Amino acid sequence: MSKVKGLIFDLDGVIVFTDKFHYQAWKKMADGMGIYFDEEINNRLRGVSRMDSLEIILERYEGEPLSQEKKDALAAEKNETYRELLKTMTPADVSQEVRDTLAKLREMGIKISLGSSSKNAKFILERVDLLDAFDAISDGTNITKSKPDPEVFLKGAEFLGLTPADCGVVEDAYAGIDAAKDGGMIGIAIGDACSYDRADYRLNTFSDLIQVVKEINQ
Ligand code: BG6
Ligand code: MG
User: Fold this and answer.
1) How far is the CA of 187 from the centre of ligand 1 (A)?
2) What is the chain's alpha carbon radius of gyration, rounded to the nearest angstrom?
3) Helix, strand, or coil (residue 6)
4) Which of 29, 110, 135, 151 has a Cα at 20 to 30 A from 74?
């Protein structure tokens, strides 16, 4: 395994926890349409783009076929609700552990990129005052395929000026670990992804990352 020169971070479930806001916003849209939606279905939306998420929710829809315009309107409605909820976020929504670890990694010479499927990623990082911790941002605005496709991470590596083999990806979702591995990167799991056998490393807590990088680079 080559040395790690860059780390690419998923956002939701790794840096911040916006799952509940996605859930509330989709729930409001689904209720308005009379579509059954619960937290289990919400879990299937992790790392999945907005429009693909809508298609998953519409699996339970039993009405007349929906035009593309209607689908776009539903996704826009959800996004409006979601962004209102995001406005309640403050710097206190990012732990000191995450801030300190990102700063320490930079001191160690590691370049840092975001790798999120969200088109709201920059907005979120601004809300929590973390934009400056990143050397590059790869997000939903620069990709055509969402995870498990590796595109968002490959772009992250490119934005950092690194090859995929130089990069580790920190992810909480199986689809994200698949994307990292299929893209030729080191898969570093946190949270739910720790139970996935494709992960190369597992973090009990975010700051374990320092030790993992030291181990890879020794
Ligand atoms: C991902 C979330 O980070 O972003 C998904 O895990 C979400 O649930 C996706 O659908 C797209 O987000 P947005 O903010 O562009 O609607
Ligand atoms: Mg995630």
Assistant:
1) 20
2) 17
3) strand
4) 151
Backbone angles phi, psi at 31, to 5 degrees: -60, -40
Looking from the CA of residue 78, the nearest atom of ligand 1 is: 16
pTM to 2 decimals? 0.95
From first CA to last CA, the distance across the chain in angstroms is 11
Are the CB atoms for 24 and 42 separated by under 8 Å? Answer: no
Q: What is the pLDDT of residues 165-209, one digit of tens each?
A: 999 999 999 999 999 999 999 999 999 999 999 999 999 999 999
Token duo for residue 129 = 């005052």
Q: How far is the CA of 41 from the centre of ligand 1 (A)?
A: 14
194 backbone dihedrals φ, ψ, rounded to 5°: -60, -25
Retrieve residue 173's tokens.
Answer: 């979702």
CA 79 to ligand 1: nearest atom: 16
What is the Cα–Cα distance from 38 to 172, expressed in whole angstroms?
20
Q: With a 6 A CB cut-off, is 152 part of the ligand 1 pocket? A: no
Condensed to tens digits (0 to 9), the pLDDT of residues 95-118 reads 999 999 999 999 999 999 999 999
101 lines ligand 1 (CB under 6 A): no
Distance between CA atoms of 122 and 139, rounded to whole angstroms?
Answer: 8
